[in-house]
Protein backbone atom coordinates (compact mmCIF):
# COMPACT_ATOMS: atom_id res chain seq x y z
CA UNK A 1 0.00 0.00 0.00
CA UNK A 2 2.80 2.37 0.89
CA UNK A 3 4.50 1.79 -2.42
CA UNK A 4 1.27 2.38 -4.30
CA UNK A 5 0.88 5.69 -2.54
CA UNK A 6 4.44 6.61 -3.34
CA UNK A 7 3.94 5.68 -6.97
CA UNK A 8 0.82 7.79 -7.19
CA UNK A 9 2.50 10.78 -5.66
CA UNK A 10 5.53 10.34 -7.88
CA UNK A 11 3.28 10.38 -10.90
CA UNK A 12 1.75 13.59 -9.66
CA UNK A 13 5.01 15.35 -9.16
CA UNK A 14 6.48 16.48 -12.41
CA UNK A 15 5.65 16.40 -16.10
CA UNK A 16 8.38 14.97 -18.25
CA UNK A 17 7.68 16.26 -21.67
CA UNK A 18 5.26 19.05 -22.30
CA UNK A 19 5.26 19.22 -26.04
CA UNK A 20 5.89 22.57 -27.57
CA UNK A 21 3.08 24.15 -29.57
CA UNK A 22 2.59 22.62 -32.96
CA UNK A 23 2.78 25.23 -35.67
CA UNK A 24 3.26 25.45 -39.40
CA UNK A 25 2.77 22.95 -42.14
CA UNK A 26 1.54 19.45 -41.49
CA UNK A 27 2.77 18.39 -44.92
CA UNK A 28 6.46 18.05 -44.18
CA UNK A 29 7.99 14.78 -45.32
CA UNK A 30 9.49 12.43 -42.75
CA UNK A 31 12.90 13.38 -44.07
CA UNK A 32 12.25 17.04 -43.46
CA UNK A 33 10.99 16.28 -40.00
CA UNK A 34 14.05 14.23 -39.21
CA UNK A 35 16.61 16.69 -40.43
CA UNK A 36 15.10 20.02 -39.60
CA UNK A 37 13.15 19.22 -36.50
CA UNK A 38 9.97 19.64 -38.43
CA UNK A 39 6.70 21.23 -37.51
CA UNK A 40 4.09 18.53 -37.92
CA UNK A 41 1.73 18.15 -34.97
CA UNK A 42 2.24 14.94 -33.06
CA UNK A 43 -1.19 13.62 -33.93
CA UNK A 44 -0.26 13.82 -37.59
CA UNK A 45 3.19 12.37 -37.07
CA UNK A 46 1.63 9.12 -35.89
CA UNK A 47 -0.05 8.76 -39.27
CA UNK A 48 3.20 9.16 -41.18
CA UNK A 49 4.83 5.94 -42.39
CA UNK A 50 7.86 4.31 -40.81
CA UNK A 51 10.89 6.08 -42.27
CA UNK A 52 13.59 4.02 -43.99
CA UNK A 53 17.21 4.45 -44.90
CA UNK A 54 18.26 4.30 -48.59
CA UNK A 55 19.02 0.57 -48.21
CA UNK A 56 15.49 -0.09 -46.94
CA UNK A 57 16.43 -0.58 -43.30
CA UNK A 58 14.06 0.99 -40.81
CA UNK A 59 15.37 4.36 -39.69
CA UNK A 60 15.19 4.66 -35.91
CA UNK A 61 16.28 8.28 -35.93
CA UNK A 62 14.31 10.61 -33.72
CA UNK A 63 13.98 11.72 -30.13
CA UNK A 64 11.92 9.24 -28.14
CA UNK A 65 10.17 9.40 -24.80
CA UNK A 66 9.11 6.49 -22.66
CA UNK A 67 9.71 2.91 -23.74
CA UNK A 68 10.37 1.62 -20.23
CA UNK A 69 9.00 1.55 -16.70
CA UNK A 70 9.26 4.19 -13.97
CA UNK A 71 7.33 3.12 -10.91
CA UNK A 72 6.83 -0.61 -11.38
CA UNK A 73 8.16 -2.87 -14.12
CA UNK A 74 4.98 -4.96 -13.77
CA UNK A 75 3.18 -2.13 -15.60
CA UNK A 76 4.52 -3.68 -18.79
CA UNK A 77 2.96 -7.07 -18.19
CA UNK A 78 -0.13 -8.20 -20.02
CA UNK A 79 -3.36 -7.80 -18.09
CA UNK A 80 -3.75 -10.40 -15.38
CA UNK A 81 -0.11 -11.41 -15.26
CA UNK A 82 2.17 -11.07 -12.26
CA UNK A 83 5.93 -10.96 -11.97
CA UNK A 84 7.17 -14.54 -11.36
CA UNK A 85 9.50 -13.45 -8.57
CA UNK A 86 11.31 -16.13 -6.59
CA UNK A 87 10.60 -15.91 -2.85
CA UNK A 88 13.94 -14.30 -2.00
CA UNK A 89 13.53 -11.74 -4.77
CA UNK A 90 10.02 -10.86 -3.63
CA UNK A 91 11.24 -10.53 -0.07
CA UNK A 92 14.03 -8.22 -1.19
CA UNK A 93 11.64 -6.12 -3.27
CA UNK A 94 9.33 -5.78 -0.26
CA UNK A 95 12.23 -4.87 2.00
CA UNK A 96 13.71 -2.20 -0.24
CA UNK A 97 12.62 1.37 0.42
CA UNK A 98 12.45 4.28 -1.98
CA UNK A 99 15.24 6.33 -0.42
CA UNK A 100 17.65 3.47 -1.17
CA UNK A 101 16.97 3.51 -4.92
CA UNK A 102 20.39 3.86 -6.62
CA UNK A 103 18.79 6.23 -9.09
CA UNK A 104 18.29 8.79 -6.30
CA UNK A 105 22.06 9.02 -6.10
CA UNK A 106 22.63 9.45 -9.83
CA UNK A 107 23.40 5.79 -10.51
CA UNK A 108 22.04 4.17 -13.71
CA UNK A 109 18.56 2.73 -14.03
CA UNK A 110 19.46 -0.17 -16.31
CA UNK A 111 17.47 -1.80 -19.11
CA UNK A 112 14.65 -1.10 -19.86
CA UNK A 113 14.05 1.42 -17.05
CA UNK A 114 16.52 3.97 -18.36
CA UNK A 115 14.15 4.71 -21.24
CA UNK A 116 11.25 5.38 -18.91
CA UNK A 117 12.25 8.89 -18.00
CA UNK A 118 13.92 11.52 -20.08
CA UNK A 119 14.17 11.56 -23.89
CA UNK A 120 16.62 9.29 -25.68
CA UNK A 121 17.85 8.38 -29.16
CA UNK A 122 19.24 5.53 -31.20
CA UNK A 123 22.47 6.61 -32.89
CA UNK A 124 24.17 4.32 -35.45
CA UNK A 125 27.89 4.55 -35.84
CA UNK A 126 28.34 6.40 -39.14
CA UNK A 127 29.80 4.25 -41.87
CA UNK A 128 29.44 3.83 -45.61
CA UNK A 129 28.46 0.24 -45.05
CA UNK A 130 26.15 -1.34 -42.51
CA UNK A 131 26.57 0.10 -39.05
CA UNK A 132 28.95 -1.91 -36.89
CA UNK A 133 27.80 -0.23 -33.69
CA UNK A 134 24.56 1.26 -32.51
CA UNK A 135 24.40 3.50 -29.49
CA UNK A 136 21.52 4.58 -27.31
CA UNK A 137 21.99 8.02 -25.86
CA UNK A 138 19.82 8.73 -22.85
CA UNK A 139 19.35 12.28 -21.71
CA UNK A 140 18.57 11.09 -18.22
CA UNK A 141 21.80 10.87 -16.25
CA UNK A 142 23.65 11.38 -19.56
CA UNK A 143 24.09 7.65 -19.97
CA UNK A 144 24.81 5.69 -23.11
CA UNK A 145 24.66 2.09 -24.19
CA UNK A 146 26.76 0.33 -26.83
CA UNK A 147 25.19 -2.30 -29.08
CA UNK A 148 27.41 -4.35 -31.37
CA UNK A 149 25.86 -4.75 -34.83
CA UNK A 150 28.76 -6.52 -36.56
CA UNK A 151 27.57 -10.07 -36.00
CA UNK A 152 29.93 -10.99 -33.20
CA UNK A 153 28.83 -13.53 -30.59
CA UNK A 154 28.59 -12.76 -26.89
CA UNK A 155 31.77 -12.92 -24.85
CA UNK A 156 32.41 -16.12 -22.93
CA UNK A 157 32.54 -14.39 -19.56
CA UNK A 158 31.72 -10.68 -19.81
CA UNK A 159 32.53 -8.53 -16.82
CA UNK A 160 29.20 -7.69 -15.17
CA UNK A 161 28.24 -4.07 -15.83
CA UNK A 162 25.25 -1.77 -15.34
CA UNK A 163 24.19 -1.98 -19.01
CA UNK A 164 25.63 -5.39 -19.87
CA UNK A 165 26.91 -6.61 -23.23
CA UNK A 166 24.48 -6.05 -26.08
CA UNK A 167 24.45 -7.68 -29.52
CA UNK A 168 22.03 -6.27 -32.08
CA UNK A 169 20.59 -7.61 -35.31
CA UNK A 170 17.61 -7.06 -37.57
CA UNK A 171 14.73 -9.50 -37.79
CA UNK A 172 12.90 -8.03 -40.75
CA UNK A 173 11.85 -4.55 -39.63
CA UNK A 174 12.45 -5.31 -35.95
CA UNK A 175 15.69 -4.46 -34.17
CA UNK A 176 16.59 -7.30 -31.82
CA UNK A 177 19.01 -6.61 -28.97
CA UNK A 178 20.31 -9.59 -27.01
CA UNK A 179 22.02 -8.63 -23.75
CA UNK A 180 23.87 -10.48 -21.01
CA UNK A 181 26.67 -9.50 -18.64
CA UNK A 182 24.63 -7.33 -16.30
CA UNK A 183 25.62 -6.64 -12.72
CA UNK A 184 22.91 -6.96 -10.07
CA UNK A 185 23.04 -3.35 -8.94
CA UNK A 186 20.34 -1.41 -10.78
CA UNK A 187 16.74 -1.41 -9.65
CA UNK A 188 14.18 -2.05 -12.36
CA UNK A 189 11.75 0.41 -10.84
CA UNK A 190 10.93 2.43 -7.76
CA UNK A 191 9.35 -0.67 -6.25
CA UNK A 192 12.84 -2.15 -5.98
CA UNK A 193 12.39 -5.14 -8.29
CA UNK A 194 15.71 -6.99 -8.22
CA UNK A 195 17.63 -9.21 -10.63
CA UNK A 196 20.86 -11.22 -10.64
CA UNK A 197 23.94 -11.50 -12.83
CA UNK A 198 22.21 -14.39 -14.63
CA UNK A 199 19.99 -11.83 -16.34
CA UNK A 200 19.43 -12.29 -20.08
CA UNK A 201 17.35 -9.66 -21.86
CA UNK A 202 16.04 -9.80 -25.42
CA UNK A 203 14.52 -6.55 -26.69
CA UNK A 204 12.52 -6.35 -29.89
CA UNK A 205 12.08 -2.76 -31.07
CA UNK A 206 9.62 -2.09 -33.91
CA UNK A 207 8.92 1.35 -35.32
CA UNK A 208 5.34 0.83 -36.40
CA UNK A 209 4.91 4.35 -37.77
CA UNK A 210 6.83 7.61 -37.73
CA UNK A 211 5.95 8.46 -34.14
CA UNK A 212 5.56 5.08 -32.44
CA UNK A 213 8.26 2.65 -31.35
CA UNK A 214 7.04 -0.53 -29.71
CA UNK A 215 9.19 -2.59 -27.36
CA UNK A 216 8.66 -6.24 -26.54
CA UNK A 217 11.25 -7.23 -23.95
CA UNK A 218 11.70 -10.77 -22.68
CA UNK A 219 13.47 -11.15 -19.37
CA UNK A 220 15.07 -14.44 -18.38
CA UNK A 221 16.77 -14.47 -15.00
CA UNK A 222 16.58 -17.86 -13.29
CA UNK A 223 18.35 -16.32 -10.31
CA UNK A 224 15.41 -14.05 -9.49
CA UNK A 225 12.39 -15.33 -11.46
CA UNK A 226 10.77 -18.74 -11.78
CA UNK A 227 10.33 -18.39 -15.55
CA UNK A 228 11.00 -15.96 -18.40
CA UNK A 229 8.40 -13.26 -18.90
CA UNK A 230 7.68 -10.57 -21.45
CA UNK A 231 6.94 -6.89 -20.96
CA UNK A 232 5.49 -4.41 -23.44
CA UNK A 233 6.20 -0.71 -23.59
CA UNK A 234 5.66 1.93 -26.22
CA UNK A 235 7.94 4.88 -26.89
CA UNK A 236 6.58 7.95 -28.63
CA UNK A 237 8.38 10.45 -30.78
CA UNK A 238 8.96 13.59 -28.80
CA UNK A 239 7.81 16.98 -29.98
CA UNK A 240 9.20 18.06 -33.34
CA UNK A 241 12.47 19.82 -32.78
CA UNK A 242 12.92 18.44 -29.28
CA UNK A 243 16.59 17.57 -28.88
CA UNK A 244 18.50 15.91 -26.06
CA UNK A 245 19.62 18.31 -23.37
CA UNK A 246 22.61 18.06 -21.09
CA UNK A 247 21.86 16.41 -17.75
CA UNK A 248 24.63 16.18 -15.20
CA UNK A 249 22.96 14.51 -12.25
CA UNK A 250 25.92 14.95 -9.95
CA UNK A 251 25.95 18.70 -10.46
CA UNK A 252 23.53 19.61 -7.71
CA UNK A 253 21.97 16.46 -6.33
CA UNK A 254 20.59 17.32 -2.91
CA UNK A 255 18.56 14.15 -2.51
CA UNK A 256 18.15 13.15 1.10
CA UNK A 257 18.62 16.54 2.72
CA UNK A 258 14.92 17.40 2.89
CA UNK A 259 13.83 13.93 3.92
CA UNK A 260 16.77 12.92 6.07
CA UNK A 261 18.06 10.04 3.95
CA UNK A 262 21.76 9.11 3.94
CA UNK A 263 23.54 7.93 0.81
CA UNK A 264 24.02 4.16 1.18
CA UNK A 265 26.33 4.02 -1.81
CA UNK A 266 29.13 6.14 -0.35
CA UNK A 267 31.98 3.95 0.78
CA UNK A 268 33.07 6.56 3.29
CA UNK A 269 30.06 8.68 4.25
CA UNK A 270 30.84 12.25 5.11
CA UNK A 271 29.48 13.01 8.59
CA UNK B 1 -3.66 33.94 -19.17
CA UNK B 2 -3.28 33.87 -15.47
CA UNK B 3 -0.35 35.43 -13.72
CA UNK B 4 0.97 32.03 -12.92
CA UNK B 5 4.68 31.65 -13.34
CA UNK B 6 4.85 27.98 -12.78
CA UNK B 7 2.47 25.11 -12.34
CA UNK B 8 4.69 22.14 -11.81
CA UNK B 9 2.38 19.68 -10.18
CA UNK B 10 -0.69 19.55 -12.30
CA UNK B 11 -2.46 17.18 -9.97
CA UNK B 12 -2.92 14.46 -12.52
CA UNK B 13 -2.68 11.05 -10.96
CA UNK B 14 -2.94 8.91 -14.04
CA UNK B 15 -0.30 6.25 -13.84
CA UNK B 16 1.19 5.55 -17.23
CA UNK B 17 -1.32 7.82 -18.93
CA UNK B 18 0.67 11.00 -18.45
CA UNK B 19 4.34 11.47 -19.25
CA UNK B 20 5.90 12.02 -15.89
CA UNK B 21 9.22 11.60 -14.24
CA UNK B 22 11.01 12.93 -11.26
CA UNK B 23 14.51 12.25 -10.15
CA UNK B 24 13.09 10.69 -7.03
CA UNK B 25 9.79 9.88 -5.41
CA UNK B 26 8.15 13.04 -4.16
CA UNK B 27 6.98 11.59 -0.89
CA UNK B 28 10.30 10.32 0.41
CA UNK B 29 11.55 13.89 0.67
CA UNK B 30 8.41 15.98 1.10
CA UNK B 31 5.30 15.64 3.23
CA UNK B 32 1.82 16.27 1.84
CA UNK B 33 0.74 16.87 5.44
CA UNK B 34 2.93 19.98 5.42
CA UNK B 35 1.46 22.36 2.85
CA UNK B 36 3.57 25.46 2.39
CA UNK B 37 2.60 28.90 1.09
CA UNK B 38 5.18 31.64 1.54
CA UNK B 39 5.75 35.12 0.14
CA UNK B 40 9.26 36.41 -0.16
CA UNK B 41 12.13 37.74 -2.20
CA UNK B 42 14.08 35.52 -4.57
CA UNK B 43 17.76 35.30 -3.69
CA UNK B 44 18.86 32.72 -6.26
CA UNK B 45 17.65 30.34 -8.97
CA UNK B 46 19.98 27.39 -9.49
CA UNK B 47 19.44 26.16 -13.06
CA UNK B 48 21.00 22.80 -12.36
CA UNK B 49 20.28 19.10 -12.57
CA UNK B 50 18.82 16.91 -11.31
CA UNK B 51 16.54 19.65 -10.01
CA UNK B 52 16.36 23.39 -10.39
CA UNK B 53 16.26 25.13 -7.01
CA UNK B 54 14.65 28.40 -6.07
CA UNK B 55 15.88 30.16 -2.96
CA UNK B 56 13.53 32.67 -1.35
CA UNK B 57 14.04 34.90 1.69
CA UNK B 58 10.90 34.80 3.80
CA UNK B 59 10.53 37.23 6.72
CA UNK B 60 8.48 35.95 9.63
CA UNK B 61 6.26 38.09 11.88
CA UNK B 62 9.02 38.17 14.51
CA UNK B 63 11.40 39.67 11.97
CA UNK B 64 13.56 36.62 11.47
CA UNK B 65 14.44 35.69 7.90
CA UNK B 66 14.52 32.15 6.54
CA UNK B 67 16.11 31.37 3.21
CA UNK B 68 13.85 28.67 1.82
CA UNK B 69 15.26 26.11 -0.62
CA UNK B 70 12.52 25.02 -3.01
CA UNK B 71 13.02 22.05 -5.29
CA UNK B 72 11.57 22.18 -8.78
CA UNK B 73 11.72 19.92 -11.83
CA UNK B 74 14.87 19.36 -13.85
CA UNK B 75 15.73 22.48 -15.86
CA UNK B 76 15.45 20.24 -18.93
CA UNK B 77 11.81 19.63 -18.09
CA UNK B 78 11.19 23.23 -17.10
CA UNK B 79 12.58 24.47 -20.42
CA UNK B 80 10.29 22.07 -22.27
CA UNK B 81 7.47 23.64 -20.28
CA UNK B 82 8.40 27.15 -21.30
CA UNK B 83 10.59 28.25 -18.43
CA UNK B 84 14.05 29.67 -18.82
CA UNK B 85 16.91 30.39 -16.45
CA UNK B 86 15.70 33.99 -16.51
CA UNK B 87 12.09 33.16 -15.71
CA UNK B 88 12.55 34.42 -12.20
CA UNK B 89 15.39 36.69 -11.04
CA UNK B 90 16.92 37.72 -7.72
CA UNK B 91 14.82 40.27 -5.85
CA UNK B 92 11.62 39.19 -7.59
CA UNK B 93 8.80 39.06 -5.07
CA UNK B 94 7.08 35.71 -5.37
CA UNK B 95 4.52 33.50 -3.73
CA UNK B 96 5.56 29.86 -3.59
CA UNK B 97 3.14 27.06 -2.81
CA UNK B 98 4.11 23.48 -2.26
CA UNK B 99 4.99 21.03 0.49
CA UNK B 100 7.60 21.08 3.22
CA UNK B 101 10.54 18.75 3.76
CA UNK B 102 10.06 15.74 5.98
CA UNK B 103 12.92 16.71 8.27
CA UNK B 104 14.31 20.01 6.95
CA UNK B 105 12.16 22.96 8.01
CA UNK B 106 13.64 25.34 5.43
CA UNK B 107 13.21 23.06 2.43
CA UNK B 108 10.20 22.40 0.27
CA UNK B 109 9.02 21.37 -3.15
CA UNK B 110 7.37 24.06 -5.26
CA UNK B 111 4.06 23.25 -6.89
CA UNK B 112 3.54 26.79 -8.13
CA UNK B 113 5.48 30.04 -8.23
CA UNK B 114 3.54 33.26 -8.74
CA UNK B 115 4.72 36.86 -8.89
CA UNK B 116 3.26 38.61 -5.87
CA UNK B 117 2.88 41.93 -7.73
CA UNK B 118 0.45 40.45 -10.21
CA UNK B 119 2.87 40.64 -13.10
CA UNK B 120 2.08 38.16 -15.82
CA UNK B 121 4.50 35.30 -15.85
CA UNK B 122 4.91 32.24 -17.98
CA UNK B 123 1.96 30.25 -19.17
CA UNK B 124 2.80 26.68 -18.40
CA UNK B 125 -0.35 24.96 -19.45
CA UNK B 126 0.09 21.39 -20.60
CA UNK B 127 1.06 21.10 -24.21
CA UNK B 128 0.42 17.54 -25.13
CA UNK B 129 -1.91 17.56 -28.15
CA UNK B 130 -3.06 14.08 -28.96
CA UNK B 131 -0.25 12.48 -27.03
CA UNK B 132 -0.95 9.69 -24.62
CA UNK B 133 1.82 7.18 -24.00
CA UNK B 134 0.86 3.59 -23.49
CA UNK B 135 2.74 1.40 -21.08
CA UNK B 136 0.25 -1.33 -20.38
CA UNK B 137 0.56 -4.75 -21.93
CA UNK B 138 -1.33 -5.23 -25.14
Describe the structure.
Chain A has a domain at 64-239. Chain A has helices at residues 2-13, 30-36, 42-45, 87-95, and strands at 64-66, 120-124, 133-138, 143-148, 165-171, 174-180, 200-209, 212-220, 229-237. Chain A is built from four helices and nine strands; from the N terminus they run H-H-H-E-H-E-E-E-E-E-E-E-E. In chain A, a hairpin with an 8-residue loop joins strand 2 (120-124) and strand 3. In chain A, strands 1-9-8-7-6-5-4-3-2 form a nine-stranded mixed beta sheet, with no helix packed on it. The model of chain A is unreliable at 1-39 (pLDDT under 50). Chain A is globular. In chain A, 12% of the residues lie in helices and 23% in strands. In chain B, strand 3 (53-59) and strand 4 form a beta hairpin. Chain B has a five-stranded mixed beta barrel. In chain B, 7% of the residues lie in helices and 38% in strands. Chain B is globular and about 40 Å long. Chains A and B meet through helix 1 and strand 9 of A and helix 1, strand 2, helix 2 and strand 6 of B.
> In what order do the strands lie side by side in the largest sheet of chain A?
1-9-8-7-6-5-4-3-2
Physical arrangement of strands within the biggest beta sheet of chain B: 2-3-4-6-5
Count all strands of chain A and give the number.
9
Secondary structural class of chain A: alpha+beta
Roughly how many Å is the radius of gyration of chain A? 19 Å
CATH topology of the domain at 4-9 and 30-115 in chain B: OB fold (Dihydrolipoamide Acetyltransferase, E2P)
Biggest sheet character of chain B: 5 strands, mixed, barrel
**Which runs of chain A of at least 5 residues are low in confidence (pLDDT < 50)?**
1-39
The N- and C-terminal alpha carbons of chain A lie at a distance of: 33 Å
* Residues in helices of chain B, as a percent range: under 10%
Provide the CATH superfamily of the domain at 4-9 and 30-115 in chain B. Answer: Nucleic acid-binding proteins
Helical segment count of chain B: 2
Cα separation of the termini of chain B: 40 Å
Task: Give the CATH architecture of the domain at 4-9 and 30-115 in chain B.
Answer: Beta Barrel
Which of globular, elongated, flat, extended, rod-shaped describes the shape of chain B? Answer: globular
Q: Could you tell me which chain pair has the largest interface and how many residues each side has?
A: A-B, 70 and 59 residues
What quaternary form is this? heterodimer
Q: Could you give a short account of the major beta sheet of chain A? A: 9 strands, mixed
Could you spell the SSE succession of chain A in H and E letters?
Answer: HHHEHEEEEEEEE
Amino acid sequence: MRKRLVAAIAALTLPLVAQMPAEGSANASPGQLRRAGGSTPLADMASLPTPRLPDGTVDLWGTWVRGGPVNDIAAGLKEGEELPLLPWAKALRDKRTDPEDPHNFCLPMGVPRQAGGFPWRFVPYPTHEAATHLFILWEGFRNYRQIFMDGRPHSEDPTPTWFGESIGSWDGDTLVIDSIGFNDKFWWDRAGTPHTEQLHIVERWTRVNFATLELEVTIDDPGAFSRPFTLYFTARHSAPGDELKEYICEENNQFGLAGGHPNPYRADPVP
Amino acid sequence: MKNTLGLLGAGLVLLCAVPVVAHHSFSVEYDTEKPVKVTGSVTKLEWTNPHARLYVDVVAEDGTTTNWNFEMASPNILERNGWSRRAVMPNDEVVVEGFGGRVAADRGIANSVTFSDGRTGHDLRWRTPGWRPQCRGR
